[in-house]
Design a protein that fits this description.
Shape: flat
Strand order of the largest sheet: 2-1-3
Order of helices and strands: HHHEEHHEHHHHHHHH
Number of helices: 13
Largest sheet: 3 strands, antiparallel
Length: 255
């Protein structure tokens, strides 16, 4: 064993003044038989990554904003490998104060805040559930959902949330909304993509799926056969069939 130099003897303990070595030393001291040095190093890196993601520089948070952990838009709440994203949301801003000062009623203000937070989260690759909104605004999930629906109806808009982006709960799926806008409202796929916060590639894919369902359904195939052939969920197939029965059957609709 090589002798330890005076410099190493003097300065090596100073490493423990920093975060990563302190974490590694904690595992070494408290769980000496659980982890080797490589695992301790890996765990320290992961813990620091989680810490940094959840602790923003105070100067990056403006008055009226809040830091919240939301589910990543590509994963579902409750999934085994659920991924969370730290997002900054505006509960109140100077514009809001001006609108209230000019007579905006509080119910409409709340609806605007719900819409803004949903859009802000989505722009940061996350989706807020109605439970998230309820907790942030100190109200129930059902009332948060009501405010969202009122805003969507008033502005003819589709706000991004798990119910329509991930087909969660009892919401009409986002696929139904996209097909309805293209087929029934006869909007261009590009406009629909913008209105529903989707890519053109996604809209084109949903249109292809709808056409597959339409072709098979009009050929008297039942939904279970359609599901087997297309691998589209039965719930979505039911909603596509609803569009076909109400708006397409008996008509020549070219997409």
């Amino acid at each position: 064993m090589l002798p330890i130099s005076k410099a190493e003897q003097c300065y090596k303990p100073a490493h423990n003044r920093f975060l990563k070595p302190a974490i590694e030393n904690f595992f070494k001291t408290e769980l000496p038989k659980a982890f080797g040095p490589d695992i301790r190093c890996f765990l320290a890196d992961r813990l620091i990554k989680i810490f940094n993601a959840n602790n923003r520089d105070i100067n990056s948070i403006k008055p009226g904003q809040v830091l919240w952990n939301a589910v990543h838009k590509d994963t579902k709440s409750g999934a085994p490998n659920m991924k969370l994203v730290s997002v900054v949301l505006a509960l109140i801003n100077d514009d809001d104060i001006t609108k209230l000062e000019n007579g905006l009623k509080m119910p409409e203000h709340r609806q605007n805040v719900v819409a803004r937070m949903l859009e802000e989260a989505f722009s940061q690759d996350a989706l807020l559930s109605m439970r998230d909104i309820g907790l942030l605004l100190c109200t129930s999930s059902s009332y948060a959902s009501y405010m969202r629906k009122v805003y969507e109806a008033k502005h003819n808009a589709t706000l991004p949330h798990p119910g329509n982006m991930q087909d969660v709960g009892n919401c009409i799926t986002h696929k139904y909304q996209i097909i309805y806008k293209c087929v029934v409202e006869k909007k261009s796929p590009l406009k629909v993509a913008r209105e529903t916060n989707h890519s053109m590639k996604a809209v084109d894919r949903y249109l292809r799926d709808f056409n597959c369902v339409k072709t098979l359904y009009l050929d008297d195939k039942d939904k279970h056969y359609i599901h087997f052939v297309t691998k589209i969920s039965l719930r979505v197939i039911d909603q596509y069939i609803d569009i076909i029965n109400q708006y397409v059957k008996g008509l020549e609709v070219a997409l």
